[in-house]
Structure formats: C-alpha cells, structure tokens
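Holo prediction — S-adenosylmethionine.
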Amino acid sequence: MSLSDFVFATCRAGSEKALKKEVSLQPGKLLTPAFMRPQLITWKVQAGLPTDFVFDALLGVVCGWSLGMARSAEDVAEILKTSDLHVCALHVFPRLISEDGLTPDEWAPVEALADSLKQVCQTSSESHYILDVILGEAGEPWFIGCHPRSAASHPHAGGLPKLTIPTEAPSRAWLKMEQSLAWLGLDAPDLLVGKSALELGSAPGGASWSLLQRGMKVIGVDTGAVATCVQNHPNYDHVGLPASQLPLDYLPERIDLLACDMNLAPDVVLKYLEPLYLRLKPCWLVLTFKMNDARVEALMPYFIQQVRRFASGPVYAKQLHANRREVTLVSQSADV
Ligand SMILES: C[S@@+](CC[C@H](N)C(=O)[O-])C[C@H]1O[C@@H](n2cnc3c(N)ncnc32)[C@H](O)[C@@H]1O
C-alpha cells in the first residue's frame, strides 16, 4: 500500500552515498533521489509501484514512507489525520547518530519530546505502522515518516537501543552484539542466562563480554589474544585456533547462538560458517560480513543469499549504527 509519494531511509554516518547507490540499483528503477541530509535520504516514488512494494535497503537503518515535516505536536497530529494513518508505536530519534550511539544526556530531551508527542499520537495495536519522528539540528523542522513493523526492521527507535559502551568492554564489538541482540528481541534481562554461544573471531572479546554479562557460556575461536576479563571468565572457553582448524568433536551437540565476526572475505566466512551452522543447529545467528573492497560490496546480495540458502529461519541484513565497513546479518531458527 502506498502511503506517500516519497520514501525515506536513515543510515549510518558516512554511508549516504553508498545507500543512494544501493537504491539506484534496486530493480525497476522506481525511486529517484529527492533530498539528502547527513544520515537521511528521501526518494520520489515513480508511478506504478507494485501493490506489495515495501521499501528496504541493506544500508538503510530505518526505511519507510516519508510523510512530511512538522514543528509541533499539533503538526504531527495533523499529518496523521491527513494521511489517515493509525500507528502502533512512536519512535522519536535524532537524525545525527554517531557509531557509539547517544549518551544519556543526549537521549534525555529526545525522551521528553517523545513523552509529549504521545499525548497527540494515539496508538492502535491493530496498526502495523510505526511513526518515526526524526529530529534535526536546532531550528530544523522534524522529519516525519512511518515504517512497517516487521522482524526485518530494528524494534528500537532509529535502530538504536539506549546503550553506552561500558569502559571495561574489550572492544566496540560489545555494542555491535548488543544492537544485534536487541534486533532479535533478545535484549530482555535474563533471557539468555544459561544459554550457550560459539563465536568465530572472538578476540579481543567485546561481543563475548556482552554474551558473558548476559549469563551465557561462550566458546570463542580466534588466534588473537583475548582480553584478560574475558579470558579469565569462568564461562569463557578460548580456542586459540583458526576457524578452519576448529575440531568439531570438541563442540557440544548444539549451540544456542552462533556468532561470527571474522575479518575475512565473506566467501571464506561462508566456507567455515555453513558446516558449523548445519552441525550445531543454533537458535540464533549473528554474523558480520566485512565490506573491505568494491568486489565484496557489489557481491553482498549474493553472500546474503548464500546464508538464506542454509539458515533454517528468515535472515535479515542491515548496516547497524555500530557497524563500520560491514553489515550485520541476524536470523532466528524457525524452531524457536
Ligand atoms: C573484528 S575482529 C573480532 C572482534 C571480536 N568479535 C570482539 O568482540 O572483540 C576480527 C577477528 O577475526 C579474527 N580472525 C580472522 N581470521 C580468522 C580465522 N580464520 N579464524 C578465527 N578468527 C579469525 C581476527 O584474529 C580478529 O580477532
């Protein structure tokens, strides 16, 4: 269903040009770029959209319909009325988001505004649309859009759980893992307690630290050195071998979460990942594919397709805010 003549996508800082290129390569050439600001692009929709059209992009963190600009809660209410739109939730977030996210001080005014907007935005659990209110710099009107609620889109406003990297986390991969868990809906406290994980490419240990702090038992595979806090954790088991030499009979029958964050070309990652996935039948997969060169960037849809071929549940892929030159893929097994 078409809700507007324009669509929008937000993106990670610095990915604007690549996002524009990605959308220009989408089949049908249905969208032409309209407006571009740092971390926000809109496109005009050409006539004749297929009825099942859903706008999405690998490099688009939030992708949806553009509904206009607003300067007040009343303007937002008017936009909702004019577009005859009912929404199930309200997401308020800034346009400019750094790779480390926002500090609590930066979130405070955003949350206050979200609270005041809730007064004018009635939500209905029957709607499948989430209203996005994207805040620009001082004096700029708010950008208003909406996107369908689905497992493909991140459940947090702007794709950004309210997290600050703890000083003791051995690497920024802590944030990548936390944003991925939130995307899978696994961020509730205690949900992962006692569950098991295997991470390929575990050093220095930021992602494993996130999983350990959530009460998981982690096997980390990496020839690199792991931070002491991770290495000495009673629930961490370091296998100091390359993934190619990981002895399968060392592994348990099943693993709850298979994570992979190796800085290798996706074709090589796939070679190690697929047999492990098929053998361990994980409930969840969290994987990064590095985009270190133009060849990999161009072939990314193919690599994602390869994961879809063997994964037992739907596979979603996005460049999250915490990702640098890489994308994150997540999947939940159909049996969960
Ligand atoms: C981006 S870092 C991983 C960061 C890590 N996930 C964390 O949480 O801190 C990439 C890692 O992949 C590892 N790696 C590269 N090739 C590998 C291989 N064949 N087997 C296992 N690990 C590998 C590197 O040693 C490096 O530590």
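READOUT: Residues 294-310 form the longest helix (17 residues).
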